[in-house]
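Thread: Newbie trying to understand structure tokens

Hi all, I'm a second-year student working on a class project, and my supervisor (Dr. K.) asked me to get a predicted structure for one chain before our next meeting. I've only ever worked with sequences, so writing a 3D structure as a token string is new to me. If someone could post the tokens and maybe explain what I'm looking at, I'd be very grateful. Here's the chain:
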Amino acid sequence: MRVLPVMRTAALIALGGALLSAGSKSMADKPSAPPPPSPAGEAIPGWNEFLDGLRDLPDRILARLPAEQRSDPQIRQEAARLALSAVTAAGIDALASDPDRPTFVPQLNNYLTTGQPNADTNYRSAKIAPGGVYRLRGQRGSMNQARIAEAGPRPPQTPGTVNLGPPRPVHDIELLKVDAAGRYDVILSPTRPEGYTGDWWQSDPTTNMLLVRMVASDWSAEKEPTLSIERLDVPAPRPRPSAEVLAARLRAIPQAAGFIAPLLVDRPQKLRAEGVVNTLKAVDMSKMGGLAGQFYFEGAYDLKDDEALLIETTQPDKCQYQSLILTNDLYETTDWYNNQSSLNGSQLHKDSDGMVRIIVSAKDPGVPNWLDTAGFATGVVQGRWMKCSSQPIPTVRKVALADLGKLLPAGTPKVTPAERDKIVRTRRSQLQERPLW
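---
Reply by user tm_fold:
Sure, no problem. This is what the structure looks like when written as tokens:
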């Protein structure tokens, strides 16, 4: 077959568009008849369940919020966006879900915001078959953290709680041996393959999903690992998926989205009910999929435009990773690509007295350690200490924005509006250069 030159192909595409447009105009006053309805019993199995199972998903999200938020038009649309985010993630998973020929696909990020993702982390997942033998390989990279956690069948859930079942193995890519080109090669299986002497991770025989967390601290310098996965105990070619399998994947989307979308949206309200407002407390995330060895603290915030939170903390002598992020009232992480709404240990300015001071406010205070609420007067502040010699819970004071100059050390650096604009543009560029897929 002769390949058309690019210009000619583009011209044909444009011509096709013009012909379609002309055809539409010529038939403008000839309304087309709707297609005949499908005979009873011939609807696509799974499709109506897919649509019907999602119809009330935004309402299920709103039902977990207080009345004043449920009636807020802005929050109602944000609930719909959160539902769409959950459906998108579940849809990607359904399209790629093949435990015999798996691939790692996006799980959470700045646009798939269910479950309150950490701003420094890229999350990917792959479905696997319980008991299968898998080979993972690629470039090891140089991340602050690069781990693969196992997950299993979801236990029955009690309303108001999260139950992910007992802890499962977590595997560290950074600990794998690499060759001269920096490549790793590891087998994951319940038992070591006979005669195999290379790197091996023992899996739980009931594990059916792998969740990858790639955590960056220095966004400009750290390199993410590359990931490939293949099942070794089945033939390599992929047969045509059966109609039954495709229907089951459709039906699984509303189940998955319906579980994760409403799951944590009431967490900000629970913090307020406990009185944890404009203050911070330690929280246990181990039952909600938090990383082992990571210490979390969080609290709701409530600020007017002329107010700020002054967060102050000592620094551990040793610490692998630390961060602060903001969320909105649906517990979605505030857009960190386009706002300085997160800071980690590589980005934080440390004062000469060894303290770190962070300002949370709607208006830019003109200092390096600013967390931008980005239009959300209420939300949550959450912090992480990972493998640190101590885990201090920062102190918090609500102050007038105009008084900050008297409360910060004299040597606190200044950030001009032009400099802030450059900082946000740089972080956006660095984040976009991190692969999401």
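A couple of things are worth pointing out once you decode it. The CA atoms of residues 327 and 333 lie 4 Å apart. The chain has three domains: 44-98+241-264, 111-236, 267-432. Feel free to ask follow-ups in this thread.
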